[in-house]
Amino acid sequence: MVMTLLTPPLRVGRRFLLPVLVALTSLLFLLKPAPAPAAPDMEIAVQDDAVLVGRLYYDRERALNQLRDLGVNRVRINLTWTEVLGRKQSGRRYQPKSVVYHWDRYDSAVNAALARGIRVHLTITGPAPRWATANHKVGVYRPDSGKYGAFARSVAAHFAGRVDRYSIWNEPNYKGWLQPHKQSPKIYRGLFRAGWRGINSANFGVQVLIGETSPYAIKGRAIAPLKFLRGVTCTDRHWRRHCMGLRADGYAHHPYEFKRRPEASYPGRDNVTIGTQRRLNTALDRLARSGALKSRFGQPLHIWYTEFGYFATGKYRMPAGRRAAYLKRAFQLARNNPRVHSMLQYLLVSPPKQWAHFNTSITLKNGQPTAPYWALKQFAGR
After folding, report:
1. Under 8 Å between Cβ of 188 and 178
2. What is the pLDDT of residues 264-295, one digit of tens each?
3. CB proximity list for 248: less than 8 A, separation 6 or greater
4. Listed range (10-19, 120-129, 210-219, 336-345) with the worst mean pLDDT
5. Helix or strand or coil: residue 82?
6. I need a labelling partner for 209 at 20 to 30 A (CA). Which of 172, 188, 326, 366 fits?
7. 171's torsion region: left (phi>0), alpha (psi -120 to 50) or beta?
């Protein structure tokens, strides 16, 4: 076909030449490979539920002003099933005929963030109420997917027009968030499918992310994220699928690297830290090719890093100067990956001693910025 257009009859009048050239140009344009879609500029995100939702030990308005100063344009919030139900409804043996949700604290946090031009990402997670678990206890033991889907639908309906991104459950590959541990991939698959349907039925078109996985295997406590992902998508070690494929709007992951420099290559091919993020890129490509997991439009999923940070206190604490340098480099590694749309600093304010078992904050208890705060601000400004 191309050769026919390139070899017109020898006698061609001028009035026939222009249409031929237009057709040729159009054909060459169509034959030219399309450039890979570029990810939009990476979001700078922060999560600090105790401050922004609970308002427990710091002034929320001051915290939001600091987020604006940092250049933050997204906050993530874990919306907890039992929290919005309340203790009385969560503790019932059977589901109430009329479920009443108490959105007040989340409404307040979402509205306060939006008022400052900061968008909100809600992770709809457990613990589940007693009437929605297999062991009939408030917790995370085999939550009922149908009841979770109905809950997710209620969340999306309530926040329609205010929240444009959701993710399904938090760290489902970690024992503390989903049990039984060995069955968690299968359980999560059911939760995701129900959550996807519920959210889209209430507010079609918002982003729904799969994953929210922790970064690496811990014996008896955490399944390596890529091994977990194979379980969720019914794929074998060669990424060949054996059940119906899933659709999602992106993959959420927590690429923590607590002990070493961000560029370090973490051992284990199924683990994914910030220094080994190519493993996740490759896995998502393979899943899309097999049809096991892809976007609404049939493409490989892009990535949202929805938790990250270095410890200020505790077993893995680092000097502030090193934390600052590592944090800045980690954010740059994420920015260098065109698949990554967001990178989130987990915690803004240093929590009191009773809540300081996981302290990756970047300001002191009184709100005074530390070196990591200034490093993040410099990165965002650049």
Report:
1. yes
2. 999 999 999 999 999 999 999 999 999 999 99
3. 192, 196, 208, 209, 210, 293, 295, 301
4. 10-19
5. helix
6. 326
7. left
- When mean pLDDT is compared across 11-15, 85-89, 196-200, 262-266, the lowest value belongs to 11-15
Query: Which one, of 358, 271, 365, 369, lies nearest residue 317 by Cα?
Result: 358
Give the SS3 label for residue 342. Answer: strand
Query: What letter does residue 308 receive in the DSSP assignment?
Result: -
Render the burial of 212-244: b for 16+ CB within 10 Å, e for the rest.
bbbbbbeeeebbbbbbbbbbbbbbeeebebeee
**In the chain, where do the E strands start and end?**
43-47, 74-80, 119-125, 165-168, 207-213, 246-247, 250-253, 293-294, 303-305, 340-346
What are the Cα distances from residue 304, in Å, to 42, 105, 332?
9, 25, 14
How long a stretch of residues is the chain?
382
Cross-strand pairs, 121: 76, 165
Q: How far apart are CA 144 and CA 95, in angstroms?
A: 12
Token code pair at residue 208 = 């729904």
| Tokens 């140009």 -> residue | 25
Q: Which residues pair with 165 in a beta bridge?
A: 121, 207
